[in-house]
Amino acid sequence: MPEGPEIRRVADRLGKVLAGRIIEDVWFAFDHLKPFEARLAGQKVTRVDSWGKALLTCFEDDHVIYSHNQLYGVWRIMRRDSEPAGKRSPRLRLSTATHSAWLMSASDISLWRREELDQHPFLSKLGPDLLTHNVTTDDIVARLQSPRFMRRRLGALLLDQHFYAGIGNYLRSEILFFAGLHERYRPMDLDRAQCRRLAEQILQVTARAWRHAGVTNLRAWRDPMIAAGEPRGRWRHAVFNRATEPCHTCGTPIERIIVASRRLYLCPHCQQDMTPSQVYARQEQ
């Protein structure tokens, strides 16, 4: 399933063809939404945002189309006089004078007023979006140190969408590797420098995945692999999906473990776990 950076890239692509333009025609597949087709037609889209794995298409009258791709949904953008081919079922179409944006296969679509979004059953439970809500390093440090999250193990916390929206499985492994932290650490176990480095890597790794279409590996490590003709799956990430491969930093084989029912990859040398005495010492500080 795509993570926050992939959904943000979808929002960016949709924004290029919809934002600032009049929507001349709106079509919904679902009967309960059809009364809103005429209301939205003729209005301008102000922006397309992402929030975690949801998309928000915002109109000038403050209506917002909420959509979630779920497992199989996909957006397709094409010239207005074209229709998508294939077996996927169309669910939503937004057409400008030149282009149409089609949402295929997804069924989680609804219409809201912007001031009502805090009542949405999914969005109301999400933490801030790292790529949409202008999150800073200081914001993340404060959230890590808050009573709500400080006692959670990092391996589970980073997947919790109440913490920050959009972090999924590959981002979790990559963030912890670049922060040099084992998944067993809790925010309360971290010293000030570790906490800040984790916050920085949460932002940096997520932003790198957004800029490079899901690639989180450093350029210095991936470029030689690309030049050698290795497939994308081998050079895309620093640790994720690289079990038994050597760590780019120290050469130690990458390990694969299961945390929160999901696979997590780490370097046992660069991300050493704390001993019980170290945990106790941190708690006494």
Describe this structure in words.
The chain is built from 9 helices and 10 strands. By secondary structure, it is an alpha+beta fold. The chain folds into 2 domains: 4-125, MutM-like, N-terminal (N-terminal domain of MutM-like DNA repair proteins); 137-284, Helicase, Ruva Protein, domain 3. The strands form 3 sheets. It has a 4-stranded antiparallel sheet. Strand 6 and strand 7 (99-104) form a beta hairpin. The longest helix has 20 residues, at 192-211. The radius of gyration is 21 Å and the shape is globular. The mean pLDDT is 94.
* Number of discrete domains: 2
- Order of secondary-structure elements: HEHEEEEEEEHHHHHHEEH
Query: In CATH, what is the class of the largest domain?
Result: Mainly Alpha
The computed structural class is alpha+beta
Helix content: 25-40%
Mind telling me which CATH architecture of the largest domain this is?
Orthogonal Bundle
Largest sheet: 4 strands, antiparallel
Q: Given the C-alpha coordinates, what overall shape results?
A: globular
Strands, count:
10
**Strand residues, percent:** 15-25%
